[in-house]
Amino acid sequence: MESSNERSPLTETIDRRDRHQPHIVIGVTSAQTCLILRDRLTALREAGFRVTLIASPGSLMFELALHEGVEPVAVPMARAISPVRDAISLLRLWRVLRSARPDVVEFSTPKAGLLGMLAAVAAGVPKRVYLLRGLRLETASGIKKTILGLAERISAACAQTVLCTSASLRAQALALRIAPAEKLRVLGTGSSIGVDTERFAPGPGTMRPKLGIPHSAEVIGFTGRLTRDKGLPELIEAFERIVTLRRRAYLLLVGWFDEAEDAVSPALREVIARHPRIVCTGFVADAAPYYRAMDVFALPTLREGFPNAVLEASATGLPVVTTLSTGARDAVVPEVTGFLVPPQNAEALEEALVRLLSGKELRDRMGRAGRAWVKANFSQNAVLEENAAFFHGLIASSDAVRKPPRREDAAAHAIGWRARRL
Q: What is the pTM of this model?
């Protein structure tokens, strides 16, 4: 496995090809989290950037880097608080950034955000972006909540821009004084990656027979980490009541039991494993075919940044039930593309899901509206172009600071940049 100071043939090829291009470093904590960067790294590379990906070592990280054609650098980072290991990770990140001398960095997820932004300041990276994907402190309490809040404020203080993936996340970050208003920014309509509406689209499904789900079943679907913060306990509680009312109801859980701090209890895992109407797939690399096995989609989450799963479900033509939590409420047009219910309220969740299962016309209408809304507001191409334009703007402003344009070139420079934006 490649260490942080080893150079692979891919790295050397990228160096020769991209040495004169602006260099951006994208960092996340775990190898598994790299999945949320799929297509985004390619878009930045195709927009003219040399791209380096930093994450903890793991097969998913190296596979993604190879698929996206970017440089992988492995830096082990513990997700939990670990002073000694965190200090070592910070030193390694500083060494990587000091050697690479990127033009801009973007770190996200709590641990990589904190350590990466501190390392970027110490290494003198000229442009620093903290991508806020959610606020874990929202479901914490006591001293842990205080520590998480302090970490978020440090990460934000080290950045010149804090990108928020949704409007409600920006509002919450401002209310919690994570950063001043002028630092907090949402690009376009939100989301860090958008949705490939060709890949996530209605169509004939092939997964039900493979999963042992009858063709005539009424399937409630969920995708993502199977944790408390995703609302799994409330979803199971609601479903156990739903099956007494809807004899053809099934629950399809497309995801894995994440052994994080919000892991579900062994007792709940046992309920899921033994329930005859619950199908749990485990981790899947491509969830797109599984959405077409669902009739409705549920994400009873307690906190989000902006849930891509909801957008993917809507793009596939599914009505959605999610919560009024931060981030989640931005992903639904209430009563049009789906329903919003209070978090940690199994009864309200049950009521909304039964209403959808009981009305095919309502499901179809909301599904059509959801797909149209996603195509109009969260097309992947549009979102990724907005991201690339943002980073090009950072590079342009950095160049202007280092070498102000001559007066006779200023107008041409402005016109050219505006044309690229359009």
A: 0.87
